[in-house]
Amino acid sequence: MKNPLAILFLIATVVAVVSGIRDDFLRLPSQASKFFQADDNVEGTRWAVLVAGSKGYVNYRHQADVCHAYQILKKGGLKDENIIVFMYDDIAYNESNPHPGVIINHPYGSDVYKGVPKDYVGEDINPPNFYAVLLANKSALTGTGSGKVLDSGPNDHVFIYYTDHGGAGVLGMPSKPYIAASDLNDVLKKKHASGTYKSIVFYVESCESGSMFDGLLPEDHNIYVMGASDTGESSWVTYCPLQHPSPPPEYDVCVGDLFSVAWLEDCDVHNLQTETFQQQYEVVKNKTIVALIEDGTHVVQYGDVGLSKQTLFVYMGTDPANDNNTFTDKNSLGTPRKAVSQRDADLIHYWEKYRRAPEGSSRKAEAKKQLREVMAHRMHIDNSVKHIGKLLFGIEKGHKMLNNVRPAGLPVVDDWDCFKTLIRTFETHCGSLSEYGMKHMRSFANLCNAGIRKEQMAEASAQACVSIPDNPWSSLHAGFSV
């Protein structure tokens, strides 16, 4: 994957400069909302589950995406009792936020944070609670959340939106472990078996989001998935410093994800009573592909693709202000923009913090330290995984074995228990993979598919990782990734 040249130059500069850094100098429900479904004359209730799966100001965009989605659903007529929101809620009043209490999702956008219900915040955002909400299992909930669950019925239509970092077969969570594709699909199958929905539309924003469903999600469960990226591909962020358009100058973070703002801004301007999911898929596909170069990213669909013929109104309602608007595939994002990989968005933030800090200040020193630590962690993880590949398969075959992408229709790994075991074994010897290290999840899947077992992995990991960088990104204090 390659970023556009300007952003690629920035990232390369940061990597080159920080990797050669000297200590003294930095070179670089009650009454439900009901509706009439025109295509099959069935009444039902609209439900929505919105999940921002990250934390930290550096990941500002994920909570901004979710807040924006809430505003669209609210204008569409959904009631708060039918909208369940997961967000860490550490952005709006973060000390780094130049406008306390305000979250934006567009350089010229309004506040999307106001009024958003925070049903599950902080450490209450975890896989067990997410699964409990989907399955309407109140007894399985933990923490101090609102207790709202997806208490849908057989005629109801559900919209799920998940935005975060991801890797092959994995979606991020602010508290570990992350969500494994096998576990998520098992939950969706249980939801289907319960007979408690008519149809589900599931939007996923993450790197390799397609790997969460490919070869795993049945086509006959009335679940339609649109993902930001195919298996083996990155997803992209937008509205970043140095981009056009960029956020207001006081912001040093990216405030949107490219896939997400594409569908969100499409919903902002169109009459959702007439626009179908297939039409929105085409719009989003066009808006994301024009920003990229060479192999780029491909928006994907899984499950019951026939549901894409339904209108967005069935799940999201529609803003009365748009009733007279007609559908157009014109790019509401404006001119094509440069984009940067989800996995490199943090470098933009840390570099901006360093660049903007006054010379000789404590802020400058702290920003320099953060840059050095994040780059040390990246190099440690990349080199460790590469070394393990050479130890297990030899110098010539190692790279190919670790990076092989399986054919479409196959899950990333056949043995999910092996997948989890090898990752934990690696982290025991080499430290946390962290959000950046999720890019290597495919390597662990490929090791399992090649027959590598725990004992071999432990021996190779111990040889590859003589020491672990002493920084927050490498620490295992938060637990294993899966």
TrEMBL record:
Record flagged with keyword Ligase: yes
Residues of the signal peptide: 1-20
GO MF annotation terms: cysteine-type endopeptidase activity; ligase activity
Disulphide bridges: 240-254
EC number: 3.4.22.34
Family statement drawn from the similarity comment of this UniProt entry: Belongs to the peptidase C13 family.
UniProt protein name: Asparaginyl endopeptidase
Organism: Clitoria ternatea
